[in-house]
Amino acid sequence: MSVRNIVEWPAQVLKQRCAEVETFDADLHTLVDDMRETMVTADGLGLAANQVGVSKRVFVMGIPEDEEGTKTEWFEVINPVITKKSGEQRFEEGCLSFPGVTEAVVRAETIELTYRDRDGNEVVRELDGIASVCAQHELDHLDGVTFLDRLSALKRRLALRAYTRERRARKDDERFEALGTIRR
To answer: Which terminus of the chain is less hemmed in, N or C, by CB atoms within 10 Å?
Structure first.
């Protein structure tokens, strides 16, 4: 397993619908394993393949099963489809492709998710709460939609402005850090 680079907005791969997975082989297993390692290293709850630059309909999730976060339920989701939705919930979401930005997004409370596992077996799961939110967020990524696209135009503009400032500040910090390393 290896940690891959996380793609940040406005990368084009985040704006395109990902292709269906047709081959369930060792390359797919490596991708899924790398995505899981990348997500854990980045301290995320979910990660879509296009967030690591791969335009395939794959995402991983690690949802804490207890309040201490000592036990995690892992999901490796390939070619997902939401087959049922019910209820509504508002949840403060963040995204590894938009570091430093969080916004409240309205999503379905409960979903039924049909997908394939890494070996191509069909899985049908009912998800609620944070698992439902995370799955919907990651499935949006696979469709080329970000959580900011779920906001009103005004909120989206403000969030993008904050993200741009945050990104610029990080780039400046990286440049200053590199200069310090060069001068030593």
So the answer is: C
Q: pLDDT tens for residues 76-120?
A: 999 999 999 999 999 999 999 999 899 999 999 999 999 999 999
* Helix segments in the chain, DSSP class H: 26-41, 129-142, 153-183
- Active-site residue (options: 76, 93, 103, 138): 138
Tell whether the model's pLDDT for residue 167 goes beyond 90.
Answer: no
d(CA 184, CA 179): 9
Q: Name the CATH superfamily housing domain 12-153.
A: Peptide deformylase (3.90.45.10)
Where are the chain's structural domains?
Answer: 12-153
pTM comes to 0.89
What torsion, rounded to 10 degrees, do the Cα atoms 45, 51, 54, 58 define? 30
Please, are residues 124 and 112 in contact by the beta-carbon 8 Å criterion?
yes
Q: Is the peptide bond before 10 cis (omega within 30 degrees of 0)?
A: yes
